[in-house]
UniProtKB/TrEMBL annotation:
CDD domains: IscU_like (cd06664)
Organism: Enterococcus rivorum
SUPFAM superfamilies xref list: SufE/NifU (SSF82649)
Superkingdom field: Bacteria
Family according to the record: Belongs to the NifU family.
Name of the protein this chain belongs to: SUF system NifU family Fe-S cluster assembly protein
C-alpha cells in the first residue's frame, strides 16, 4: 500500500508540473534561444536561457508537448536556475542516465525531475522526458555565446 501512495504522489507531482508548468513563457532578454522537436510524438520546445558570467540567471520555455515533456521542462527549469553551466550540464547528464534506468550519484540534485525515473520502464517516453534537457545542453554550449540556435532532435 505504501508503494501505491508513493506512485500516486509521483503522478500528482508530474501532473501538477504538466498542468501548471514553472517558468513557462518567454524571456525579454536571453543569451540563447534553442528550438527542438521530437518528430516521433510531435513535442516541440523553445527554450530561452539568460546566462550571465557563466551562471543561468533565468530560463523559460514554450511550445507544445505531452504531459511528460511539459513536466520535465518545468522540473528542469527549477533545477538549473542559479547553477553554473558546468553544474547544469552535469544535471542534464544525470537526468539522461536516470531516465534510461541507470543509477546516478545524487538524485536529490535533480529536484522533482528525479521523479521521472519511472520513464525508464517506457522506452518510447524517454525522448519526451529528455527533450528539454537536450535543449538545455545545446543552450549552455559555448558559454552562452550567440543569440539563437535551432536544433531538431530526430534521434
Amino acid at each position: 500500500m505504501a508503494l501505491s501512495r508513493l506512485d500516486n504522489l509521483y503522478r500528482q507531482v508530474i501532473l501538477d508540473h504538466s498542468s501548471h508548468p514553472h517558468h513557462h513563457g518567454t524571456l525579454e532578454d536571453s543569451s540563447k534561444k534553442i528550438e527542438m522537436n521530437n518528430p516521433t510524438c510531435g513535442d516541440v520546445i523553445e527554450l530561452q536561457v539568460d546566462i550571465q558570467d557563466g551562471i543561468i540567471k533565468d530560463i523559460a520555455f514554450s511550445g507544445s508537448g505531452c504531459s511528460i515533456s511539459t513536466a520535465s521542462a518545468s522540473m528542469m527549469t527549477d533545477a538549473v536556475i542559479g547553477k553554473s553551466l558546468a553544474e547544469a550540464e552535469a544535471l542534464a547528464e544525470d537526468f539522461s542516465q536516470l531516465v534510461q534506468g541507470n543509477e546516478v550519484s545524487d538524485e536529490e540534485k535533480l529536484g522533482d525531475a528525479a521523479m521521472l525515473s519511472g520513464v525508464a520502464k517506457f522506452p518510447a517516453r524517454i525522448k519526451c522526458a529528455t527533450l528539454a534537457w537536450k535543449a538545455l545542453e545545446q543552450a549552455v554550449e559555448n558559454d552562452g555565446e550567440g543569440t539563437a540556435g535551432q536544433l531538431h532532435c530526430e534521434e
